[in-house]
Amino acid sequence: MIIEELDFAAMYREHLQRAERSHKSAEHWDKRAEKMAENCARPKDSYLEGFFKLMDLSDCDTLLDMGCGPGSVCLGLADKMQAVYGLDYSSGMLEVAKRRADAEGLSNVTLIKRAWEDDWSDIPVCDIAVASRSTLVGCLKSALEKLNRQARKRVYTTHTVSSTFIDPAIIQAIGRKVVTLPNYLYAVNILQQMGIKPKVDFIESSGCMNQAESYAQFEDNVAWSLGPLDEPEKLRLQEYYQRHKQQDKPLRTGDRSWAMVYWDATPLS
């Protein structure tokens, strides 16, 4: 088989299914909204600085931010746009984003409750469409097509570089099997097969949910990605934590490098 014969969209779906990654409910994200606003929307956040640096905003007045969370991207660019639209399926995230927009005196922000799978026919087409750290979806090809349709000029998406959110050493330490997730290479190849020629750059990030100043926070970060831990797993994780602390080794839950996959909006047949 040669690369032209591969169906990368189908491969992505199969990979995601094998990973047995459960869909996180809106309520799950509601509970994380305050913490994400605190940790992932800081003005000097290394990820956001890298994201904004790679964007071309010339001749653009409107922006759509899909999976906007607490408004990290859309609020960060609102002062450079006539109008920005933030979409998310979590009411809690939208409430936090609204509070932050009001606190900053931003009057050009529209927040809309919407999921990737929903109808977008009433969503305005914007000069720029963005999906920041929100692209691990059930059908990646459909998501990329939607973003492309919503953009007049440019589309910016970010995807994980590593195939695991958590350091594999931690996963093995608690006794679980290391299961990989789809990374940015699927997006690049799916876009190519759609007739779009994307560009790729990389953002090195300290990881907004990756820092741990205590064991409780470390355990919370691990459970955030892997799901609830049982008691034996917690004991093994404590041992891992204490061993690294005694050896003065850095305690980070994982690699937070991101791939920016972006392209000029392209009419598709």
From TrEMBL:
Keyword list, A-Z? Methyltransferase, Transferase
Residues in domain Methyltransferase?
Answer: 61-156
Q: Has UniProt tagged this entry with the keyword Transferase? A: yes
Keyword Transferase listed? The answer is: yes
- Signal sequence, renumbered to the chain: none
Q: What is its EC number?
A: 2.1.1.-
Annotated GO MF terms? methyltransferase activity
Q: Which residues cross the membrane?
A: none
User: Which BP terms does GO give this entry?
Assistant: methylation
Q: Under what name is this protein listed? A: Class I SAM-dependent methyltransferase
Source organism of the structure: Shewanella indica
